[in-house]
Amino acid sequence: MASNTERDILIIGGGMAGGLLAGALIGSGWRVTLLDAATTPIMPDGLGRPRVSALTEASQQMLARTGAWAMLPPARVQPYQDMQVWDGDGTGEVHFNAAEVGAEALGWIVENDAVVAAQYQAVTAAGDVQWLTGAPVQNIRREQDLWQVMLADGRVFSAPMLVGADGARSGVRDTLGIPGAHQDTGHVAIVGTVQMALPHDGCARQRFIHTGPLALLPLFGDGHQCSIVWSVWAAEAERLMALGEDAFNEALTQASQGCRGALRMLGPRAAFPIRELHASDYVRDGAALIGDAAHVVHPLAGQGINLGMLDAAVLAEEFTRARERGLPFYHPAALARYQRRRRGHNALMLNALRGFKVLFEQPSLEVRLLRNVGMNLVNRAAPVKRLLAQQALGRSGDMPALARR
Ligand SMILES: Cc1cc2nc3c(=O)[nH]c(=O)nc-3n(C[C@H](O)[C@H](O)[C@H](O)COP(=O)(O)OP(=O)(O)OC[C@H]3O[C@@H](n4cnc5c(N)ncnc54)[C@H](O)[C@@H]3O)c2cc1C
């Protein structure tokens, strides 16, 4: 019989959401183990990786407070002070600037692998939270009031609190019997690293096209590189992915309306079908879901992991709050508060993004006209613009202390 390691909290999944929770629990006094199937995260070097995230100020704060931001090589982090969003089928345009809202930057573009490697370094350097890699969870079951987690190699861990941070295809969500059906958006995101003839000038650009948005996210390097997220219908994605290098570069340059001159792919392109998901519940019987295990949103506003890291920070905050009130940290009331604080907020974002997608898909002249007039009005209305910029910074809603400035 394999030995059973007793812990207080087991986190399944060491992506950015699980990594943030592990960081937030450093020094908490609870015995925490994070289990991840992947190999030990290492800091990327060389050319930018194709998977990047636009992190909000709130996410940057959380990473700084958990020690991970200091582990990121500054040369691999690209802040952006400007954001330009325009309608490819008209003249509507909105331009945001960090100075208008008294911010240092509107956001930061960082490779996902770099964030996880930095989180891993911060957690392992602190020493009290255990982060095990190469540890695929094979089986989870509830024994009286404890969760028992079995790894593929036969090791067993048990704890009263289980956190599912295991991504969109969450096995923890399935074990808990929480419905979270995937909904196909019809879109596929093509991602990759691109060389641009003109510099990015620290500006994140997004062109809305009726077939889907194209984002040009400024990357570290010589100031001429960016990461693209080009969302298109599945059939169009298939056509684009089959194109030779020159033809693809030409199609991409055209889609960007030549805003940065000629664009050229620097590495391979990858395609991800975009599915949405929202778990009907985030908590059950001493267990909670965070990050993509709980919700998957369209990447058109770059919000996915920003929401996931807020989940992690709020959950850690509710554990502490319960303890301060003399309750077990995994008390049902603490978990219910976590769900209340996060599920509504995430549902709002999911619905807003769905609305945006539909609005920009409309080919009718009337809708296009309204859209363009609306965008230009927003661009001239300073208070509305400030409000939207505050949202983009992640400064809105019920923020955990870890995310506040
Ligand atoms: C094209 C694209 C662009 C995006 N751009 C942005 C952006 O700009 N900004 C933004 O905020 N978000 C963005 N997102 C969303 C963001 O990438 C996701 O929200 C985020 O990566 C999810 O992180 P996570 O930690 O919840 O899950 P994941 O990153 O999926 O991590 C899950 C972890 O669980 C582990 N795991 C799974 N099963 C097991 C098991 N049985 N045993 C042990 N470990 C297990 C895996 O190894 C993995 O490490 C984008 C998404 C896409 C598709």
From TrEMBL:
Any GO molecular function: FAD binding
Pfam families associated with the record: FAD_binding_3
Entries under PROSITE patterns matching the protein: UBIH
Keywords: FAD, Flavoprotein, Membrane, Monooxygenase, Oxidoreductase, Transmembrane, Transmembrane helix
InterPro entries: FAD-bd, FAD/NAD-bd_sf, Ubi_Hdrlase_CS, UbiH/COQ6, UbiH/COQ6_monooxygenase
Bilayer-crossing regions: 9-30
Example GO biological process: ubiquinone biosynthetic process
Metabolic or biological pathway, per its Swiss-Prot or TrEMBL entry: Cofactor biosynthesis; ubiquinone biosynthesis
Cofactor(s) needed: FAD
Domain FAD-binding, residue spans: 8-333
Assembly and interaction partners: Component of the Ubi complex metabolon, which regroups five ubiquinone biosynthesis proteins (UbiE, UbiF, UbiG, UbiH and UbiI) and two accessory factors (UbiK and the lipid-binding protein UbiJ).
Alphabetized NCBIfam families for the sequence: Ubi-OHases
Designated name of the protein: Oxygenase
Organism: Isoalcanivorax pacificus W11-5
